[in-house]
Amino acid sequence: MNRPSGRGRRLRLFSLTSVLCAGAVFLCAPALASTPLPGRDSAMGQTSTEPVTDTPMGSQIRKHEGGEEQAVPAIAPLATVAGMDVSSHQGNVDWNSWYNQGMRFAYVKATESTGYKNPYFAQQYNGSYNVGMIRGAYHFALPDRSSGAAQANYFVDNGGGWSKDGKTLPGALDMEYNPYGSTCYGKTKSQMTAWIKDFSDTYHSRTGRWPVIYTSTSWWNQCVDGDFSSTNPLWVARYASTVGQLPYNWGIWTIWQYTSSPIDKNTFNGGYDRLQALANG
């Protein structure tokens, strides 16, 4: 995975309601499009027709689930790696500053549905790489707009690919609450599972890697009935002192997004050598 996610004015809006932090992003750029009107997607499967803008990763999870932002997460593993994720709401990011604060990996939003490309993608994706971070791209899914295959191809064609250079993480699929309509995009659990599989299989056929799946346990349990634990690494969002219960059948998390203040921060479950192994495939 715009509305404030840990990235922008939106988190500041959230802070007036359920999110406990005020300014939510570092180097936040003005939104590039107006906030969309509520979608018309319904439980009957009607496709939302609201314009796609730029939804940051985690923005809808914070909106629906809230939670307490953590300065430092309580982590059981002995070895972890600090990371972050950004979207257009950060604008041109000062990557040297974040590297000096200990960040060693970054995910950058590339696309949303098949109609949005992050205009800051090059600066963010290449800039994180140039300062020495291991970086990857993510796609904000809108499963009611087009097929999983169509969105996977759009993602790969617009920055979401993978190369075995030791510095590129597999692309991530951002699955969370619908910013334009009903929670599960008008799909049944089995239909949502099929959509995710279509995206995942297409991404794998294009790149040779399974995409990382970003989600929250609450959203996943409401909207999906499939098991992706044997193929896709889990990136779980939970703004609390512990990671808590994981989505169906995943026994371990790979990345945990634990706060959006002052930017979306993540921790990798393992040492730096394991992060390199994920990059290398």
From TrEMBL:
<feature type="region of interest" description="Disordered">
    <location>
        <begin position="38"/>
        <end position="61"/>
    </location>
</feature>
<keyword id="KW-0378">Hydrolase</keyword>
<keyword id="KW-0732">Signal</keyword>
<dbReference type="InterPro" id="IPR008270">
    <property type="entry name" value="Glyco_hydro_25_AS"/>
</dbReference>
<dbReference type="InterPro" id="IPR018077">
    <property type="entry name" value="Glyco_hydro_fam25_subgr"/>
</dbReference>
<feature type="signal peptide">
    <location>
        <begin position="1"/>
        <end position="33"/>
    </location>
</feature>
<protein>
    <recommendedName>
        <fullName>Lysozyme</fullName>
        <ecNumber>3.2.1.17</ecNumber>
    </recommendedName>
</protein>
<dbReference type="InterPro" id="IPR002053">
    <property type="entry name" value="Glyco_hydro_25"/>
</dbReference>
<dbReference type="Pfam" id="PF01183">
    <property type="entry name" value="Glyco_hydro_25"/>
</dbReference>
<keyword id="KW-0326">Glycosidase</keyword>
<comment type="similarity">
    <text>Belongs to the glycosyl hydrolase 25 family.</text>
</comment>
<feature type="compositionally biased region" description="Polar residues">
    <location>
        <begin position="44"/>
        <end position="58"/>
    </location>
</feature>
<dbReference type="InterPro" id="IPR017853">
    <property type="entry name" value="GH"/>
</dbReference>
